[in-house]
Amino acid sequence: MAVHDFLRKCAHVCEYFVFGVLLFRAFRTPSDGWRWRWALLAILGAALYASSDEIHQIFVPSRGASIWDALLDTSGASVAQLVVWIANRQEPAPGMRKGLRSPARENTGGTT
């Protein structure tokens, strides 16, 4: 049973990691790069969502709420911000803009 619990906790960290990256992309608006404000908003959003999930579990008979689960989820989103920061510091590959962004668009000078 311990392996099952460990895998479930790892899944939560991975889910909130992805959620943290998506929140960062949502908060960064059309700008590129990395800003503390966007990262902190993403962590706060993930923490609030994790807390609301734990509060919801109080009302489900077969579930139990745990502050440790909310903290574990928040840590997954926090690690995501570190990875996004590192990715935005790397040099871009040819044809790509820097960081977790879409490919650079070429300006052909004409209308589409």
Secondary-structure element series: HHH
Return the structural class. mainly alpha
Strand content: under 5%
Mean pLDDT: 86
The portion of residues assigned to helices is 55-70%
N→C terminal distance: 59 Å
What's the short version?
By secondary structure, the chain is mainly alpha-helical. It contains three helices and no strands.
Tell me about this structure.
By secondary structure, the protein is mainly α. It has a domain at 14-23 and 35-60 and 69-85. It is 64% helix and 0% strand. It is built from three helices and no strands. Helix 1 (2-27) crosses helix 3 (67-89).
List keywords for this structure.
0% strand, 112 residues, mainly alpha
Topology:
Blueprint: H1 2-27, H2 36-58, H3 67-89
Helix pairs in contact: 1-2, 1-3, 2-3
